[in-house]
Amino acid sequence: MYQTIKQQLKHLTKKDYNSLCKLTHYSKNLYNQALYNVRQRYFEDGSILRYEDNYKLLKDSPNYKMLNSNMAQQILKKVDGSMRSFLELKKLAVKGEYDPKKVKLPHYLEKDSFFTLIIGFIRFKDNKLIVPYSREYAKDHEKVMITVPPVLKDKRVKEIRIVPRYDARYFEIHYSHESECFQRELDRTKALAIDLGVNNLMTCVTSEGRSFIIDGRKLYF
Fold first, then answer.
1. 176 phi, psi to nearest 5 deg
2. Do the beta carbons of residue 146 and residue 175 sit within 8 Å?
3. Where are the domains of the chain?
C-alpha cells in the first residue's frame, strides 16, 4: 500500500518561488493544450485521442519543452485519465446506473491559473529533492532544492507532487511512498467516536468511556 506525506513548502527563496510559479503555469498551459486535443477528437467522432497520439502532437510545443519530459508526460496521462473517466461515467449513465447530470467533459483551467507538477522519476541527493528541469528551462534558471523529511529516509518514494495553493500564493509538496500493510485483529464490539476540529484536531471518546484529545497545533509546518 502507499501512504502520502504532505508539507507546506516554507522558506523558499524568491527565485525558488518564482521558478515554481513559472513551472506550474507551464504545467497548466500544457494541460489545457492536451485537453483541447482530446476534446476536439471527441467532438469529431466520439472517440478518445490516445495518450501516445497526443504526445506526438505536443512533444515539440513550447510548453512541453519548458517542462522536464517525465513531468510533461505525467500531465498528458492525467488528461488521458480524466477523459477516460468521463467516457466510463457516460456509459454508466446510458445504462441508468449513474446520474447523467453529473457527467461532464473535463474542463479547461483558468488562463492565469496553475497546475500541479507531478514527478514520477525521483532522485534524491544528500537528502534533498532537486526539482527536475528540462534543458530549455535549465538554461536560465537555478535549481530548486527541497529538503526531504527525515521520516522518508530509506522509504521507496513512488511519486512527488508540487501543488500550487490559492493561485500559487504558496505550495504544498506531497510524497507518496510504499508502506507495509499490517493486518490488525479488531474488536468489533468496541467503537471510537471522533470529533474533528482545528486547534484540537480530534476529540475522541471510546465506547468504554475513555476520552483523549489530539492537539492539531503540533502538526502545523
1. -100, 120
2. no
3. 2-178, 185-221
pLDDT digits (tens, 9 = 90+) for 160-185: 999 999 999 999 999 998 766 556 67
Report which residue type is found at 49. Answer: L
What predicted TM-score, i.e. pTM, was given to this entire model? Answer: 0.80
C-alpha cell read off for 38: 482530446
61 Cβ partners below 8 Å, 6+ apart?
30, 33
Q: 16-45: per-residue pLDDT in tens?
A: 999 999 999 999 999 999 999 999 999 999
Rounded CA gap, 167 and 110, in Å? Answer: 10
